[in-house]
Amino acid sequence: MAKDRKRSSEPKGRKITLKMAKMALKLTMDGKRRLDLSNMGIATFPKCILMLCDVDELDLSRNLLKKIPSTIDQFVNLRWLDLHSNQLETIPDSIGRLQNLTSLNLCNNCLITPGLPNEIGHLRKLRSLNLGMNALERLPSSIGALKELRHVGLFNNLLTREPECLRNLLHLERVNLKCNPIPPEGASKADPIQRTECLYLVKESCLCASCLSKVKDDRQKVTRRLREAPSHKKAMFSGLITPNSVAQKDQATWR
């Protein structure tokens, strides 16, 4: 009974064998070896791929991974690691031992601030770091040590101000901070987050009974006001052919 409970608690997903992993090996345009296991329904990090730890690139994106083991540091030649669109909540400290890494994509996961280790600042060759679409409230200050960093993605997070650790990165070319609750410059302290009103058009069938009734009442009020408003029709002059007919006869007097 206990074994059955343990099995049921384990995450379900596709099991990857060493043979399948070898079939997923590809050669990049510049002659590097890439292990592409993206979009394969993997829920647990396949231990068998440690037998292929000499690859240059590893793609585990668009899977169901919730955890990356500390053994990730065995991929010593890794220059490109793509883990986007998983369910990762934490990244192991051993990530900092991937000294050849130049690109790290952690976009669209479940990362919170404590889940991003300070050891990420040891990736001295890192040029591209994508942390977008997570739940980060701030960044580790150690990121300020990534002097080769060019591109940083921080969109769709919970940052309330621009990270100070990025200010001293001289080679930084692009930082994406869109869709964060960062107040605009000059915003008042009383209301640090300014909100913009938006207009949304919806079908009547999408409204509940009370909302629909309110909308109809408001519409009737507007219609009533328009009907009661003073008319701006052109004035009619009864008994005259045209109002200017008299003026035309008296033009000499006016002159």
UniProtKB/TrEMBL annotation:
Superkingdom, taxonomy of origin: Eukaryota
Protein name: Uncharacterized protein
Origin species: Dallia pectoralis
